[in-house]
Amino acid sequence: MGGVRMSRLAGKVAIVTGAARGIGQAIAAAMANEGASVVIGDVSDEGAEQAAASIRDEGRAAIGVAVDVSVRTDVERMVGAAADAFGTPSVLVCAAGITTAGGDTTFLELSDQEWGRVFDVNLGGTFLCSQVVARRMVASGIGGSIITFSSIGAQRPMFGVPAYHTSKAAVSGLTRALAVNLAHHGIRANALAPGYILTDMMRSVLGDEERYRALVSRVPEGRLGQPDDVVGSAIFLASDESAYVTGHVMHVDGGAFVLGWTPAQNPTLPPNDEEEIA
Q1: Active-site entry in 164, 196, 212, 244
Q2: Is residue 214 part of a domain?
């Protein structure tokens, strides 16, 4: 046989939320290149359309839809637009997420509003998108793949942003529940758990060169990740190559989770000379 490569997602309809930039955008573009018709869902209407237009410029099929994933009517409108444009979605990537809602994030100062908004987007949005898409899949009699986004911080939280890390731990649990509850409908559910990926969000919190080097020193691969480093795992989980994979949380972190990195004390406090580590 010749060496012609088949597109791994040919004929599939994929919804990718949080896809106007960063990891979501990289995944959406890659899925389009693998033959999927792609729906870019993002809270930014302009960003969603720009990301979709860049895919169309490459001769691929894509539309952009503005969506707040924490609002059911928004999610239903997005999924309806996908079905109207391309047919029933068979792939869902829940990449929309926030680290903070703009308030205090340390545990003792964390407000109800901050906690609630982070959970509404990260966990609630994953639930709503998964349920609405799964209902469409079941009604159409097709199977599919749901890919959620957890984090290595779900199992090994760093100091600060407890709402974010707790919400991502809940996403891991939800993903396993989806796998169990949807398997008999031919729907698989798996989570990607990225490590330190150089997105705009990560760059905003990296700080100085010393902090950057400290992070890199805790990644066995010797570098921070790029959005494209997450793409291959997403394509695998979306494709029929992973037909017997469900309920799995896949670390995409250059080995950072295995090595570990979190300091035991608040990094903003001065060291305690009486507790030096030999």
Answers
A1: 164
A2: yes
